[in-house]
Specification:
One of its GO terms (cellular component) is plasma membrane. By secondary structure, the protein is of the alpha/beta class. It is built from five helices and eleven strands, in the order ββββαβββαβαββαβα.
Length: 232
């Protein structure tokens, strides 16, 4: 897993408690690593699911005065009108598609792989799911937005995920990625995939972070989209 030709460490992994028949690939937010999210998923793990939490490469980030930190792509601003790092977003998305391919080679079909992320990672997961040729189980998108949204619907014209289920969660007190940006993203998503399959949940008083109630909702969504093989 690398980006910008700068290598990142191997992902944090929570192995399945028994044979893995499904996987969740979850992308952390700006300046973070996959370790905290791996710990979070270990607390809500489902026995047949493997959780993969990759680490973003380190790069200078314009939003933070060009300081170097883990980042999937450069960010110039966090409002709907900000310029975007189109080349970086597309490059990062290709890296995530390669990670999905690796799991398919490991024996988990892509339709049993759920993509997710928080903030910048959630943004990348939405973009990747809409532009990949891999049929996915769905997306969990927390406190985030859809990058390069003006490139859609053209960018997703041949995407096989028009009927995928999406759980989008956002705190209504988010001072970093405004709640309105999240709700506008949910409306945009409804125009790109089956609107009946888009769930947007808000959490009262939640800032730019996750909370136990939200993680329970995430677990329920994963259980529904990635049932044990015998339950399908």
């Amino acid at each position: 897993m690398c980006g910008n030709s700068m290598s990142a460490p191997l992902p944090a992994i929570v192995p399945a408690a028994r044979k893995a028949t499904a996987a969740v690939i979850f992308l952390h937010g700006l300046g973070d690593t996959g370790h905290g999210w791996a710990e979070g998923f270990a607390g809500i793990r489902i026995p047949h699911v493997k959780y993969i939490c990759p680490h973003a490469p380190t790069m200078p980030v314009s939003l933070n005065m060009r300081m170097s930190m883990p980042s999937w792509f450069d960010i110039y601003g966090l409002n709907p009108d900000a310029n975007e790092d189109e080349a970086g977003i597309k490059r990062a998305s290709e890296n995530i598609k390669a990670l999905i391919d690796q799991e398919v080679k490991n024996g988990i079909p892509s339709h049993r792989i759920l993509l997710g992320g928080f903030s910048q990672g959630g943004a990348l997961s939405l973009y990747t799911a809409l532009t990949t040729q891999q049929k996915l189980a769905g997306v969990v998108a927390l406190s985030c937005w859809l990058p390069l949204r003006k490139s859609f619907p053209q960018a997703s014209a041949s995407c096989p995920n028009k009927d995928m289920h999406v759980l989008q969660c956002h705190g209504d007190a988010d001072p970093v990625v405004p709640f309105m940006f999240g709700s506008q993203t949910a409306e945009k998503m409804k125009s790109l995939v089956n609107p009946a399959n888009i769930t947007f949940k808000s959490y009262r008083g939640l800032p730019h972070s996750a909370c136990p109630e939200e993680m329970v909702d995430v677990k329920r969504f994963i259980e529904k989209q990635l049932p044990a093989i015998g339950d399908e």
